What does this fold into?
Amino acid sequence: MLRRSLGEAYRRVLWANTISYTGAGVYVAALPLLAVTVTRDPRLISLVAAAEFVPWLVWSLPAGVIVDRCDRGRLMWRSQVVQGVVIAMIALLVLVRAIDIGLLILLGFVLGSAEVFFSNAAQSVLPELVPAAELPKANGRLQVSLTVGETFAGPPLGSLLFAASRMLPFVLNAATFFGSAALLSGLPERQSAAPTRAPMRAQIAEGLRYLGKHRLLRTAALLLGIMGFASQMGQATLVLLAIRVLHTGVSGYGLLWTASAAGAILGGMTNPMLTRRLGMTASLIFSLAATAVAFAGTGLAPSATVAAAFFALNGYFTTMWNVVTVSLRQRIVPPELLGRVNSVYRMIGWGLFPAGAVAGGLMAKEFGYRAPYTAAGILVAVAGVVAVPVLTGRRPDSSRGSAD
It folds into this structure.
């Protein structure tokens, strides 16, 4: 069925993402464990987490122009090669025992810079590969592949490999990036360049104007920023909450991500059907409410088992949010603008991640390791109450919406 409906090129993207995100999941678990071997200061650990998201503020807007000008498949595989080289450097530094927090922050910034280009190109190339009517299904399957790799298989594997040898998870992660690049290099060339070669500043302004005038997409971007800020408040010091408060141990820390993945996989399989029944507006509102409950519940959880249940809830509704909002952008935004609008959208949405990570580290230092997640739940709940009138002010269910 996948072969007939979505095609060979899409399968390459799907498998490349599955391989790459499995390696990324290994890295997600191994990096904070490595950081904890260097320092136990939550402020410094939060800076390591923040470094990977700072590039969304620095590179998002020029990346959008480049994605619209260049062949998107080629940009994807080259970005993966850069990421593989960076992770290989971390493995080498671990081997020679030359790692420190400053190097982790620097390499995290380079890794995140490559991710800005890869992620934008990956979302922008999809409408070129599958029919518009199949975008929710295609995005849902990509979300499942991301979840299986990044939060289900990867983190427990990363924790186990780190326990065996600190270098092993980074070696595996580098190999997955190179494997993904090999698959993506076989994509057919599709030149998506804009027909005119206007200055980069003018093209960036065009993307800014489009998103600024479109109320639904603008609101979704702002909400993504708030949720991302809140998520990073908790995740930046999650390793300390898990090990010191919930007493999970190194392996149990990875299993929290497995619970999130189980919810997200279920979401990826059922959300396309559920959102058709609920409508896209109701799906976004449900996602906001459930995310607020999941964050607050994690902060208040009396045990690792209860925290895992809230991680599963968060995984399910994060997937719902992603499938709906990505599909909306791919349907609404003209193809020649998609890279630039994606870049503005994600700069707003992801640009607050570093601030959230730093805020979480400071909050954990002053008020304890539970405080960041509890505060995150309150923040998302307040944002949801404010945003509901805006989200219900128009119907986003049509495939093409006019800017307002």
Notes: The chain has a mean pLDDT of 82.
